[in-house]
Design brief:
The chain is an alpha+beta fold and about 325 residues long. The chain has 2 helices and 20 strands.
Length: about 325
């Protein structure tokens, strides 16, 4: 008895501190054959009908034994499991502290005031453990690749996904594996913030880790007449004095210049031609004005000379 009380107090303290948080799910069971899911240790709300107050009698069973019986005439609810509650106004049943044995098929029956059956439905409930405590473990391979494994301490039917610096891992970054496996192998030059997300039908969790390369560099050189092109460990490298970076794909497109470039060159040529013409006419106008000014000045000088000669005679 004391041990049970201590355990209950411990669980309450964990809930107050946020260490343990029950997962709640909802399922609409108003259609026949619905599949519902609940989290192990959590709670599930299942809506059976719109409003039980409009139904004379309702019974909800699990593979035979009755769990909830509602009689609207007496506004009476009979519940055979202390973890179960029923709200007639919303027609919703709630199961708390879900356990594995809660999984199974449930039957709903409604009856009129004379006890005749008016409707029958079934639903299937699956109780699953939520994912928790995701762990990431990385390991360098002998050729510089990095193996990263992702795991969850708990969780039924987990599904995995990976991101690197916010984007989904691509084939160019993966040496082996894919974005949905729990173990991936990264290529030699991959680094950044790696995130593994684990989820199932009731919960999800993730873990991130900053990863760097395993200390390998790409060598592409000729040493003692031998061409070398491979990944080597930086600290043990004696093959090339100046290692070159990893090869990158270079795309070269041949062929004639683009039409846009040709149009641009033609436009530039027209602008230069117009500018030359404008400069020429500007220069010509200034020259003509200068010549005219010189001619007028010479005419005035000749007039003055003729007046002086007339006065002298």
């Amino acid at each position: 008895m004391k041990a049970g009380l201590l355990l209950l107090l411990l669980l309450l303290m964990m809930m107050m501190m946020g260490v343990f948080q029950a997962v709640e799910t909802f399922c609409d069971g108003r259609q026949d054959g619905v599949q519902c899911v609940g989290a192990l240790g959590g709670a599930v709300d299942i809506q059976l009908v719109d409003n039980a107050a409009e139904i004379p009698r309702l019974e909800w069973k699990k593979e035979g034994p009755m769990i909830v019986r509602w009689i609207s005439k007496n506004n009476k609810t009979i519940i055979r499991d202390n973890r179960v509650t029923f709200i007639p106004s919303t027609g919703t049943v709630r199961i708390n502290n879900l356990i594995r044995n809660d999984s199974g098929q449930y039957e709903l029956g409604t009856f009129d005031s004379d006890g005749r059956s008016t409707a029958e439905r079934t639903l299937l409930l699956s109780v699953e453990a939520g994912v928790s405590s995701v762990q990431l473990v990385s390991e360098c391979w002998s050729q510089g690749q990095m193996q990263v494994s992702c795991s969850s301490e708990e969780g039924d039917s987990p599904q995995y996904s990976w991101t690197l610096d916010g984007h989904t891992l691509t084939d160019s970054e993966l040496f082996s594996g894919n974005n949905q496996t729990n173990i991936i192998i990264l290529r030699q030059n991959i680094s950044g913030r790696l995130v593994c997300s684990v989820r199932n039908r009731v919960s999800e969790s993730s873990r991130e880790k900053d990863i760097s390369t395993c200390g390998f560099i790409f060598i592409n050189c000729t040493s003692n007449g031998t061409h070398i092109s491979e990944w080597v460990f930086r600290e043990n490298n004696t093959l090339c004095v100046e290692p070159t970076p990893a090869p990158t794909a270079v795309t070269h497109t041949g062929g004639p210049p683009s039409p846009l470039l040709i149009c641009g060159l033609r436009f530039l040529l027209v602008v230069l031609l117009l500018l030359s013409i404008c400069l020429y006419f500007t220069w010509r106008k200034k020259k003509d004005e200068k010549d005219k000014s010189s001619a007028d000045s010479e005419d005035r000088d000749n007039s003055v000379m003729m007046v002086e000669m007339s006065s002298a005679s």
